[in-house]
Amino acid sequence: MSDPVVRPIRSATSDLTPEHTADAALTQRFVASLAQDQRYAHDMFAEVYQRWSALVYSVARHAMRDDHEASEVTQRVFISAWQSRDGFNPAAGSLPGWLLGITRRRIADRWRERSRPTSNTTDEVPETAEGTEDPRVSQIIDQVVLADELARLGHPPGDIMRLAFYDDLTHVEIAERLSLPIGTVKSHIRRSLTRLRTRLEVTRDEQ
Predict the structure, then answer these.
(1) Lowest mean pLDDT among 85-94, 102-111, 140-149, 167-176
(2) 18-198 has which CATH code?
(3) Do 71 and 45 contact (CB within 8 A), yes or no?
(4) How many C-beta neighbours within 10 Å does residue 75 have?
């Protein structure tokens, strides 16, 4: 089964959670900071790190399966992001999508580095050509981003979507499990799917 294709944040809509609105405002401030002096830009970048470092670390931790390696990758991602910050184009995709694009490359770099001293062993390092995206990284990013987005839906929408996605329950079973009217469950699922598709999803081909 092919991995889902997800799309970047494009337009402002109603039906946004406060967290999504805050993220959009943070992205606007980040873009504005690029034209300011370096100290101001650095302070603004610290906010970006505070907001999305956990997401980057989660992806790295799932990929590397080691806390120290995940921390190393996360550090490299944000160093790369700081050094290439002028290249961020909000019209091309979302800020978290840009960061995850860098994360893919830093994970691939670390996998190649880790494989060199153990090239004669059977370590689980993907043998993809440089510049080729490993499908495992894409799958990990999809899973982590989905989990992050579901958590940000709050209650009960996030609970409903987790039961639908992970437990594969029907609308009726979810309504019974959460003691909610069936119409409420359907309404939350419809609105939540729209949010997941159009607001904070990330394209594979960003960066």
Answers:
(1) 140-149
(2) 1.10.1740.10
(3) no
(4) 15
Measured at the CA of 154, the angle between CA 148 and CA 158, to 5 degrees, comes to 70
Distance separating alpha carbons of residues 185 and 131, to the nearest angstrom: 43
Looking at residue 77, its pLDDT comes to 95
122 three-state secondary structure: coil
Q: What is the domain partition of the chain in residue ranges?
A: 18-198
pLDDT digits (tens, 9 = 90+) for 112-133: 887 775 544 444 444 444 444 5
CB 23 within 8 A of CB 50: no
Count of positions (residues) in the chain: 207
Structure pTM? 0.67
CB 158 within 8 A of CB 150: yes
